[in-house]
Amino acid sequence: MKCEIIKIIFIASLVIFLGQQVTAQFLEPECGALRISKRLVNGTDAEKGLYPWMAFIHRGKHLVCGGTLITHWFVLTAAHCIAKTKGLKVSLGVHNSNDLHSSRIYKVDRFLKHWSYVRSSEGSDIGLLKLARKVEFTANIRPICILTDSKIKVDRVSWFLAIGWGKTEPDGDTSNILQTKIIERRDKSECDCLDSQICTVAESGTICYGDSGGPVVLELKIKQKSRYVQLGVSSYVTDHCSKHGVFTDILSHSMWIQFLVGRHTPNDS
User: 164 and 81: one domain?
Assistant: First the structure.
């Protein structure tokens, strides 16, 4: 019953936000593919193929961070995820990390950290991976929507959906199966974070180690079409994953994203 109440509140919070977004513009027009889900889960396995924009950033078979496909050429992640770039690759179409051979694996041509990034707690923990070859979209590999209007404010949203392969317990292993968790936005003072960051908390723990670089998303309906829109990038957690999770606010960095995507996208694409 409690889970159903959370589901209702989560959907209602989106409707409040959506009323302001009828003229929203996206980085990639055919983004945010939305499939009908049998359930809205919280801290359990995601349905296979439901989030085709999730990127598994790895070294060998080892998870380094999550990320999101945002165009034919770019994956969005956290800047701290690409502090060490040697051997990093991106797999798309991943649900179970034990089954990477069935995904599409991409080498990275450029690692682009935000120019003002120093450490996660000081903000701008956001980065782009320019892939070595163009991604052809399929049913299981599609981009997430990135809003290009920096005037939109995340503070209007109360609930988000976080997604990743991170640890389900602070002292446990990272999850092989993609996980989802409903998280609540809190006042920035609770996390002692910046205006360009999002402070969140979850009912039973927050995001955890291994979720870094992954998204917080919401469902947006425009002209009768529902899409998933990404509003944050997982940056860091407090109190050993037991309390707050801090995300980089994408809307505060939308001009940076647009500039680099435009600059480094091949002309013939």
Answer: no
Confidence (pLDDT) at 8: 41
* 3-class SS shares of the chain: helix, strand, coil, % to 5: 20, 35, 45
Predicted structure pTM score: 0.86
Domain that holds residue 204: 159-249
Q: Is 254 helix (H, G, I), strand (E, B) or coil?
A: helix
* Set 58, 80, 244, 253: catalytic member: 80
Q: Indicate whether 232 and 171 sit together in one domain.
A: yes
Catalytic pick from 58, 95, 114, 125?
Answer: 125
Q: Are residues 260 and 130 in the same domain?
A: yes
Annotation marks residue 253 as catalytic:
no
The larger pLDDT score, comparing residue 47 to residue 209, is at 47
The pLDDT value recorded for residue 165 is 84
Residues near 264 by beta carbon (within 8 Å), at least 6 away in sequence: 73, 74, 110, 112, 130
Q: Is 109 a catalytic residue?
A: no
Domains of the chain: total: 2
